[in-house]
Amino acid sequence: MINHWMFRCKDVSYLISQSMDQKLSLRIRLGIKFHLMMCDLCSRYKQQLDLIRKAISKVETEKEEDPFITPLPGQTRKKIKNHLKTL
Amino acid sequence: MAALKSKDRFKGKSSEKTWLTGILKHKIIDFIRKKYREPVFEDTISESRLPDDVFDANGKWETGPAQWASNPEALLEQKSFLDIVKKCFKALPRRPSRALALRELEGETTQTICKVLNITTTNCWVILHRARALMRECIETNWLEVKD
Questions:
Q1: DSSP 8-state secondary structure symbol assigned to residue A39
Q2: For residue B18, which of B13, B14, B113, B145 is within the disulfide window of CB 3.0 to 4.6 Å?
Q3: Rounded CA gap, B137 and A49, in Å?
Q4: Cβ within 8 Å, pair A48-B68
């Protein structure tokens, strides 16, 4: 019975990623939390994914300050994005 | 190879050269089709695939993620680390790269990403998971080399 409650590291690594994209059910969130309490490697994995998320946006914002790259103006970007959504 | 297999069907209506280039043309089309076809992902969590199988048969880490620094947050201030992140982000395969960029840089929801990439929601999560796992692995390999 307890095994149904216990996630394996393999599942948790997927769920950690999924939790970064949407809100998971209470049962799954508790399952992850419980697993992380006991598993140092998965805790480290989660910490690294959080760090990667921060690092990616940091690297990208710095890129936009590069004078040789002129990004499209915000308004144009928004227009294109909205247009894509309607497709 | 295909030409040898069907040489009986070649009736000499056309020259050998056009016949062979015809086969080649179809082979190339087949190849391109295969390349751009949707990769098949299993629809269950347990089947989600990592770049290498980093888990054993019981779903436990084989070796597991290594420690990058005693204070990982400080890495965000280190140029050598951020350079590796940049390099690894560029090195991602096309679809995981697009999915991750849409998610992390444009802040899109998975629903939108699925629509843009024309895939199911589950595939979207699997691709994002793969993208992050690949990024993590790439950063770890390169960072531990630089660090030592």
A1: -
A2: B14
A3: 11
A4: yes
Domain that holds residue A57: 2-86
Q: Mean pLDDT over residues A60-78, rounded?
A: 67
Which tokens belong to B73?
């947050």
> Is residue B26 less than 8 Å (CB to CB) from chain A?
no
* Interface mutation vs chain A, best among B41, B43, B45, B137, most A CBs within 10 Å: B45
Evaluate if residue A76 carries a pLDDT over 70: yes
Residue pLDDT, tens place only, A33-47 = 999 999 999 999 999
Two tokens, residue B104: 């992390």
| Token pair recorded at residue A71 | 């990004």
Total tally of structural domains belonging to chain A:
1
Q: Between A14, A51, A81, which is nearest B48 by CB?
A: A14
Cβ separation of B61 and A85 shorter than 8 Å? no
Q: Which of B80, B99, B97 is nearest to B89 (CA)?
A: B97
